[in-house]
Specification:
The chain is 29% helix and 29% strand. The chain is α+β, with helices and mostly antiparallel strands. The protein folds into 2 domains: 4-172, Cytidine Deaminase, domain 2 (3-Layer(aba) Sandwich); 175-230 and 248-258 and 269-330 and 337-387, no CATH class. The strands form 5 sheets. The chain has a 7-stranded mixed β-barrel with strand order 1-3-2-4-5-6-7. It is globular and about 65 Å long. 31% of the residues are buried.
Length: 393
Amino acid sequence: MGRTYFVEEAIGQYLSDLSTKFKPYVTGLLIGQCSTQRDYVIHAVRTPPKEEQKEDNIIPSKLASIDEEWITTHASQVSRMLPGGLLVLGVFIIATPELLKDSQNALRKLIFSVEKSLTKRRLWKPTEEEVSDRAALQICSATKKVVCRTYDVQDPKSSAKPADWKYQNALSASWLALDCTVNVNIHIPLLATSPNHDLEKNTKNGLNRWSKQIEDSVFLINGEVKDDGTELLEGQKKLRGNIQSSAHFSDVKVLTQLSRGSSHRSTATVQVCSGSINLKGAVKCRAYVHNNKPKVKEAVQALKRDIINTLSDRCEILFEDLIINEGPHKKNFQREYHVLPQRLFIPVVGSSVMLSDYKFGDEAAGEIQERFVEMLDQSVRAEDIHIAEEPNT
């Protein structure tokens, strides 16, 4: 039995518009959420054209010209803009009948390279029971016929399995949100033996250790510790078929464990250090979960991943910014302060879900709007940009 993808109805119109605009083919990403029973696709976004294609209006005519690296880079950028619970679920291609005949191999390659790139950046490990199927969607631009298949990205030899593609109206209009603010104070020693004082590598190692603390934390939802296996909405009253607004769990507290208890012996290590990195501030974290009897475990896992992702993504963005502005060879070992980019949220039309992004203090709203058009093919009004937090260092 193949998987079933429940798809936001507006995506059908979006894909149909792309099929008339872009010939002979267009590729893109599918964004949504996996669960054991069913998968949800709440957003689709085409691959942005490269600069030279924009200028010359060139559209490659052969599938061999699909730029795997460009699509993979786009997937990495988009994944930073997804709050907890959302991920890149697969890839699509809309093509003429002649090209579609050979497109399955190209899609398979893309799915595996996108997943490999996304996995490399993550500081968390997927669980054993997690869904590892990703979607390959083909649409014929002439007949509009839709064929959906899945590949298991944990198995390099995986072959295609058929999957159902079903449109549904207002699919994510009443998804549940979990919000929390996490106070971060991470001290990362820089070893004297560390070659070239590689700040990025040291920061990643420090974040790796911190992420394990987050994985082991206790999460209070509306002041209670809930059992993993219980339904998130257990005990909530339903109102005319919808959950009351209190189900927007804006009150989640994260309790990190201070010690492992007396049964665990710990040993201290003395290391010679030449400096340290301190990450300090309060970060705003958010996760979304489908409303089809979600379990507490799913919701907490999505929020944990958002906490870990949002900090590691910001550090990555900061290092990229420093390389652009200061060059990779700058070595200044004086005390320096850098402000990490702030998190902001943007609503998705017709959905309760908001997408995320990061801005530096001097970035104007226009730059954020441009980024959303380029990365997510979505226009955003300046008044819809919600900055969620104070600047952090």
